[in-house]
Write a structure and sequence with these properties.
Order of helices and strands: HHEHHEEEH
Strand order of the largest sheet: 1-2
Distance between the termini: 41 Å
Helix content: 55-70%
Radius of gyration: 18 Å
Strand content: 5-15%
Number of strands: 4
Largest sheet: 2 strands, parallel
Length: 106
């Protein structure tokens, strides 16, 4: 019973921003883990990266698992791609700053 009480207190203290970042990190971990410990990305992005960056990425193919979690979003620059997990991590970081700002009363 005390374990559930402790879990309830822990969950009460979790901020939305921290949870958002944690979920984003988990999604990135999941897609990297299921694809040979490399983040899948567009072929153009992979080929335009320098060799040290290519060590961390694989181009997306038909065999890529969980393609929707890979680096599938791009801005105008085709050499920069990001994933849903990256968006969640960035959004959680932004919310953390907002929470600090309003809590401290700057």
């Amino acid at each position: 019973a005390s374990a559930f009480l402790g879990l309830g207190v822990f969950c009460y203290e979790i901020r939305v921003s921290a949870l958002l970042m944690l979920v984003g990190m988990f999604l990135n971990f999941l897609v990297i883990r299921l694809n040979g410990r490399k983040m899948p990305t567009f072929r153009e992005t992979f080929e335009s990266a320098d060799p040290t960056e290519q060590e961390r990425y694989n181009p997306i193919t038909e065999e890529t698992r969980l393609q929707f979690l890979a680096d599938i979003f791009r801005l105008r620059d085709p050499t920069i791609a990001f994933s849903i997990g990256d968006i969640m991590i960035t959004g959680g970081g932004y919310l953390t700053l907002v929470e600090i700002y309003f809590k401290k009363g700057f």
